Amino acid sequence: MVPYAFCLVFIERCQKEIDEVLEGKAHAPFGERHNMPFTQAMIHESQSIANTVPLNVFHCTSRDTELMDYSIPKGTLIIPNLSSVLSEEDQWKFPHDFNPVNFLNDEGQFEKPEDFMAFSAGKNFGLSEIIYTFFLVKND
């Protein structure tokens, strides 16, 4: 659990970044998100911590598959556990704490790790994120 005062530091940093990019304008174009790496990191960390779809949509193998040392026959029901991916200790700098630094590289730029799957897993997992981002940005 992250102390409340620590969260305020994140919020203040995010607000400062937004104010600097907007320069008094009411709205920023979608492309400006690249100039707000900490804000993007805050949004993605919030999605990660929210764990909105912990077990995701069930899938089924379309062919016989080998994964590690396991044989998975065609037609096997697969239930992706996104909770385990979003808190994997080998993949995140701070796997059990709210910390936007999980999404910042060494230069302080936003970088979405390959293991980030807040909405879905599988062939079409990106569509959920695109729809969410669209509504997040377009919602006034």
What's the arrangement of secondary structure elements?
Layout lengths: L3 H19 L14 H14 L8 E2 L4 E3 L2 E3 L4 E2 L3 H5 L38 H14 L2
Antiparallel strand pairs: 1-4, 2-3
Low-pLDDT runs = none
Report mean pLDDT, rounded to a whole number: 79
Number of strands: 4
Task: Give the termini separation.
Answer: 31 Å
Side by side, the strands of the main sheet go: 1-4
Class computed from helices, strands and strand pairing:
mainly alpha
Large-scale geometry:
elongated
Per DSSP, the total helix count is 4
Helix content: 25-40%
Instruction: List SSEs in N-to-C order.
Output: HHEEEEHH
Report Rg. 18 Å
Oligomer: single chain
Main sheet attributes: strand count, strand direction, barrel closure: 2 strands, antiparallel
Strand content: 5-15%
Characteristics of this structure?
mainly alpha; two-stranded antiparallel ribbon; 4 helices
Briefly say what this structure is.
With 140 residues, this protein is mainly alpha-helical.
Folded structure, characterized:
It contains four helices and four strands. It has 140 residues and is mostly helical. A hairpin with a 2-residue loop joins strand 2 and strand 3. The longest helix is centred in the first third of the chain and has 19 residues.
